[in-house]
Amino acid sequence: MKKITVIYWSGSGNTKEMAEAVAAGAGSAGAEVALLAVDEATAENVLTADAVALGCPAMGDEVLEEGEMEPFVTSVEGAGLNGKPIALFGSYDWGDGQWMREWDDRMKACGGQLVAEGLIAKNFPDQAALDNCKKLGEKLAAAV
Ligand SMILES: Cc1cc2nc3c(=O)[nH]c(=O)nc-3n(C[C@H](O)[C@H](O)[C@H](O)COP(=O)(O)O)c2cc1C
């Protein structure tokens, strides 16, 4: 069975909501899904999955959360993605998605095969955003 791992950081729960919908989409497409908060995950969880989804809101000044997610993403870059299908997602408030565009570029640069542009949702994801998260999970499962 295809193994898909969804790893996220979420301060106030909005990106967590998105992560659950991405995981549900991948599960409905027949994958075995692990959903982990980033403090429970290591780069090994990425290496051993057939495909991964990573989620983080815009923090700081249009950057990833710096205490846990940024070091985690740096460790993934160090390990390399070697063509692995990957999907990115996260919530934001006042920006225009700059953090996500930069994150997309970083994951491409270390060998990730992005199945879609990073999916962003303003604040708490509404039903349309959650539907898009589910579709992203399905697309990720289809890419394996
Ligand atoms: C410290 C901090 C920094 C933030 N920086 C940005 C930012 O640069 N751009 C932006 O669009 N939103 C920014 N936000 C808003 C969050 O991205 C937004 O509240 C998001 O929904 C939080 O997602 P979460 O519930 O998964 O933590 C910031 C929020 C906090 C608390």
Give the structure's gist in a few sentences.
By secondary structure, the chain is of the alpha/beta class.
Radius of gyration: 13 Å
Main sheet specs: 6 strands, parallel
Task: Provide the structure class.
Answer: alpha/beta
What is the CATH superfamily? Flavodoxin domain
Number of distinct helices: 5
Ligand types: flavin mononucleotide
Oligomer type: single chain
Number of domains: 1
Measured between the Cα atoms of the first and last residue, the distance is 10 Å
Q: What is the C-level CATH assignment?
A: Alpha Beta
| Average pLDDT metric | 98
CATH topology: Rossmann fold
The SSE string, one letter per element, is EHEHEHEHEEH
By DSSP, the count of extended strands is 6
Strand content: 15-25%
The outline comes out as: globular
Percent helix: 40-55%
CATH architecture: 3-Layer(aba) Sandwich
Low-pLDDT residue spans:
none
Structure description:
There is one protein chain. With 144 residues, the protein is α/β, with parallel strands linked by helices. The chain has a single domain (3-142), classed as Rossmann fold. The protein is 41% helix and 22% strand. The chain has 5 helices and 6 strands, in the order E-H-E-H-E-H-E-H-E-E-H. Strands 1, 2, 3, 4, 5 and 6 form a 6-stranded parallel beta sheet that branches. The radius of gyration is 13 Å and the shape is globular. The model has no long low-confidence stretch (mean pLDDT 98). The structure holds flavin mononucleotide.
